[in-house]
Amino acid sequence: MKRVITYGTFDLLHYGHINLLRRAKEQGDYLVVALSTDEFNWDEKQKKCYFSYEKRKQLLEAIRYVDLVIPEEGWDQKSSDIELYHIDKFVMGDDWAGKFDFLQEETDAEVIYLPRTPEVSTTQIKNDLKLK
Ligand code: C2G
């Protein structure tokens, strides 16, 4: 059983997120999504989410590729998550390329960056809606 983990905010869920989750699941048999909490988003990413953590969690749990959703409360939990959930592959979109290579040294997990889906982002959606 190959176990995969990925991290993100997943606010205003869109097809770019779904493409990422589908390809992350294709890397193994079980996908854990570490979902950024509202506090983490605001304190560390200066992102104010449209949907609360609970609502974003509910949406993710409805996706067929997702097997487990856990909270992401800080930048430094990745190594311990990988150990705790016996993760074989750590997957992120390539806007993060290189940023998590240290995990390959610190843990037994393989680090994989997948191409982002072009032309869609939560920020773009918000900006487009402002223009309506
Ligand atoms: N993504 C993608 N294509 C897009 C938009 C997003 O592949 N058009 C991917 C991102 O690369 C990321 C995932 O979808 O792997 C979630 O994106 P965000 O919700 O924006 O997550 P982010 O703010 O990058 O948080 O500790 C890591 C952070 O929690 C990642």
From TrEMBL:
This protein is called Glycerol-3-phosphate cytidylyltransferase
Q: Does the keyword section mention Nucleotidyltransferase?
A: yes
Q: What is its EC number?
A: 2.7.7.39
| Species this chain originates from | Candidatus Enterococcus myersii
Q: Which molecular function GO terms apply here?
A: glycerol-3-phosphate cytidylyltransferase activity
Which key words are in the record? Nucleotidyltransferase, Transferase
The regions listed as transmembrane in this protein's record are none
The record places domain Cytidyltransferase-like at 5-126
Statement: the UniProt record of this protein carries the keyword Nucleotidyltransferase:
yes
Q: Which Gene3D superfamilies match?
A: HUPs
Which superkingdom heads the taxonomic lineage of this protein's source? Bacteria
Do you know which Pfam families this protein is assigned to?
CTP_transf_like (PF01467)
